[in-house]
Amino acid sequence: MADREPSMIGSQDAPRSFAEPLVRLVPSLITLLRLLLLPVVVEFAHRGRSPWAVAVILAVMSVTDFLDGFVARRIGAVTTFGKVFDPVSDRIIVIALGIFFTLDHVLPLVIAIPLLIREVVISALVSYLALRYRHRVDVVFIGKAGTFSVLVALPLLVFHLGHGIFDRDLYDAGLVFAAAGTVVLYAAGVRYVRIFVADVRGSRRVPPETEEREDSTQ
Fold first, then answer.
1. Taking the complete model, does pTM exceed 0.85, yes or no?
2. Judging by beta carbons within 10 Å of its beta carbon (0-12, 13-18, 19+), is residue 94 exposed, middle or buried?
3. Which of 91, 163, 180, 188 lies in disulfide reach of 143, CB 3.0 to 4.6 Å?
4. Closest residue by Cα to residue 144 from 97, 112, 191, 104
5. What is the pLDDT of residues 19-51, one digit of tens each?
6. Which is nearest to 118 in space by CA: 98, 137, 134?
């Protein structure tokens, strides 16, 4: 019996070691789901499907924006890839749906233009830091909160052409969330610009090859 114990212990550890990398992929898979739902919701909205169907898909996308980070922290699966993949996915979704909803006369220009300008500018700054100095800027809570507010607004905005008793109220609530999210994103953008300037100044003193940064941005 004593001779069999090592093999029994090994058989118990093997599934754990095999399953652990798969478990660590769960947060990124949740983020991927949010990104894959983007063409689905655009197709549904473009074909004039029920506002409720479009709203449900958008609501699922909004929930996953919170869920991926929550799961990553809960199971100890916070990775450098996840830190980059999550905000990049958010930015793609906000820009794509911002343009689509603007062209579809759902999102007013007074909100859409500042929102899209902010996303494009921050994307450019982040890309410049990554390509030129190999730097990443850590995500700040206020930036994530702004993005989440915009994602919450999207399911409500689809009721702009609805004729239900509460459709107009839902649309107005969506405008409030979108406007508030845009303001919050600009507040976060000020912080990112400051970090960007500090990183560029610091990189001019230290060669990029000697620096290692494990951060990400929103």
1. no
2. buried
3. 188
4. 191
5. 577 778 889 999 999 999 999 999 988 887 778
6. 98
Which residue, chain included where needed, has tokens 């607004």? Answer: 153
- Tens of pLDDT, residue by residue over 42-93, are 998 888 777 888 889 999 998 998 899 889 888 888 888 888 888 888 889 9
In which residue are the tokens 């993005």 written? 147
CATH T-level assignment (fold) for domain 2-210: Four Helix Bundle (Hemerythrin (Met), subunit A) (1.20.120)
Burial status of residue 90 (CB atoms within 10 A of its CB: 0-12, 13-18, 19 or more): buried
Nearest alpha-carbon partner for 65 in 25, 100, 37: 37
Q: Are 38 and 97 in contact (CB under 8 A)?
A: yes
Distance (Å, whole) CA 154 – CA 164: 18
**Residue 210 near residue 135 (C-beta atoms within 8 A):** no
Residue type at 158?
Answer: V
